[in-house]
Prior knowledge:
The chain contains three helices and six strands, in the order E-H-E-E-H-E-E-E-H. The protein is an alpha/beta fold. The radius of gyration is 16 Å and the shape is globular. The mean pLDDT is 92.
Amino acid sequence: MPFNKIHVPKTLPAEMCRSINQQLHESLVSTCGVNPDDDFSLVSRYEPEDMMFHPTFLGTRDPAATIVIEIALLGGRTDQQKEELYKDVRQRLAKIGFDQNNSIMFLIENNAIDWSFSEAGSVKSVLGL
Length: 129
């Protein structure tokens, strides 16, 4: 059950944002066994001059066109699954016409106790985990 935050420049069209989210979700399903119904994302827009990432750290990118994909998900994926996710997402970005070099991704893992969707409490207590 991931929650994705996709930080994008304000100038990136809404259609591209939706496509990025769709590709990210499909990649999470394919590489990390995420439930197809677990599609939760928030697009956060920034002014291009507000991106303060080094333009050549571990690759060359345009800071004013870079997106940051932040994925919070339940722990338990292997290093191999995570590497496959990063590679797969970048390949998918290229297929929809987004420069994959202008993407940065990171994962934040947590536990079922760290999620709540209703007044019933945590996912852990609701599902009896």
